Amino acid sequence: MQISPSILSADFANLQDELEAIAQADWAHVDVMDNHFVPNLTLGLPVVESLLRVSPVPIDCHLMIEDPDRWAPPYAGAGAKSVTFHVEAAHDPKTLAREIRAQGARASMALKPGTPWEPYEELLPELDMVLVMTVEPGFGGQTFMADMMPKVAAVRQSVRRHGGEVWIQVDGGVSASTIEQCADAGADVFVAGSAVFNAEGAASNIARLRELVTG
Ligand code: DX5
Ligand code: ZN
């Protein structure tokens, strides 16, 4: 069970401090948006390179961009330990996953809420993680989509069938009130933005989320 706080809800003027505030997390989730694949623009490779220099935890890059076949491998080359591309945007997901692994990162594939899992099941041997989006990608602070839990369960079933160690990540609206149903459905990596970076303080929010899924 791993917690990956999304820095999308952090203070962008103080990212080094914000990363230090989540030193007890397993990962720092960095949302890269290109204003084409999603209607929002965040940051790109130069900023990720800077974050990699100061982050106390490994970086989990979630690329919400067009043409990840071209743009995703350099994030792995720069040192991100996990790189997630969206299958809806990829031209050749199998080759892309192999390139990400060849650059030394875990290869991960994301599914938007409207994208079914079954057509992509055969890609499982190429993947280290599958991200099941629990909101429409693009913005933090949206409402959790509980109707994605059957998709999480379907991915978990495929992973069991195929064997191997593939993690299942959920992202969007994950909080103290929704994290347990994600774990029950089979997720084991939990992204949380607004539920971590708020007035309660990141460290205690992370501890609470972790406690809910590890008992
Ligand atoms: C949304 C991003 C998420 C976002 C989650 O497109 O992929 O990582 O930061 O934010 P919350 O946890 O607030 O829904
Ligand atoms: Zn994300």
TrEMBL record:
GO MF term list: D-ribulose-phosphate 3-epimerase activity; metal ion binding
Entries under NCBIfam families matching the protein: PRK05581.1-4, rpe
InterPro entries per UniProt: Aldolase_TIM (IPR013785), Ribul_P_3_epim (IPR026019), Ribul_P_3_epim-like (IPR000056), RibuloseP-bd_barrel (IPR011060)
Co-factor binding comment: Binds 1 divalent metal cation per subunit.
Pathway, per record: Carbohydrate degradation
EC number: 5.1.3.1
Cofactor: a divalent metal cation; Co(2+); Fe(2+); Mn(2+)
Biological process annotations from GO: pentose catabolic process; pentose-phosphate shunt
Enzyme type, top EC level: isomerase
Protein name per the record: Ribulose-phosphate 3-epimerase
Matching CDD domains: RPE
Cross-referenced Pfam families: Ribul_P_3_epim
One cellular component (GO) term of this entry: cytoplasm
Function: Catalyzes the reversible epimerization of D-ribulose 5-phosphate to D-xylulose 5-phosphate.
Active site: D31, D171
Source taxon at top rank: Bacteria
List of residues binding a divalent metal cation: H29, D31, H62, D171
Family of the protein in this entry: Belongs to the ribulose-phosphate 3-epimerase family.
Keyword NAD attributed: no
Swiss-Prot/TrEMBL catalytic activity: D-ribulose 5-phosphate = D-xylulose 5-phosphate
Keywords (A to Z) from UniProt: Carbohydrate metabolism, Cobalt, Isomerase, Manganese, Metal-binding, Zinc
Annotated substrate binding sites: S6, H62, G138, F139, G140, G141, D171, G172, G173, G193, S194
